[in-house]
Amino acid sequence: MRLVAIGAAAGLFSALFGVGGGIVIVPLLLLAAGYAERPATGTSLAAIGITALAGTTLYAFEGNVDVAYAALVGLPAAAGAIAGASLQQRVPVRALTFAFSSLLTGVGIWLIAT
User: What mean pLDDT is reported for the chain?
Assistant: First the structure.
């Protein structure tokens, strides 16, 4: 049931704010579901694929998807995801935790300040 709640929260925030589900899913998998860092990241990416498809479908029906720009962002992002997944397997877990928490903190401060 916890994973269902995490999924519902991720889908809601992803579609509502346009944020990547990982910003919601990874911390919740770590804190609420007791996942380790690497499985949380991999599970999050798999779930995001499903979430993105559902959200994109609805936005497309409403005429709010620019396919060309999505490709301009998405194709390099896919290459970055491959590089990031490969790098993540080599970085110590403590460093991953610090980097991710720093990213979340920085984004939070930036959003509040702007």
Answer: 91
Distance of CA 70 to the CA centre of its chain: 16
Residue 9: exposure state from Cβ atoms within 10 A (0-12, 13-18, ≥19): middle
pLDDT, tens digit, 9 for 90 and up, residues 33-88: 999 999 999 999 998 888 788 889 999 999 999 999 999 999 999 999 999 999 99
DSSP state of 66: -
- Encoded tokens for 28: 């919740």
Q: Where are the domains of the chain?
A: 2-113
CB atoms within 10 A of CB 4: 8
- Residue 110 to residue 44: CA distance in whole angstroms: 24
Which positions ≥6 away from 22 have C-beta within 8 Å? 41, 44, 45, 48
Distance CA 14, CA 110 (A): 19
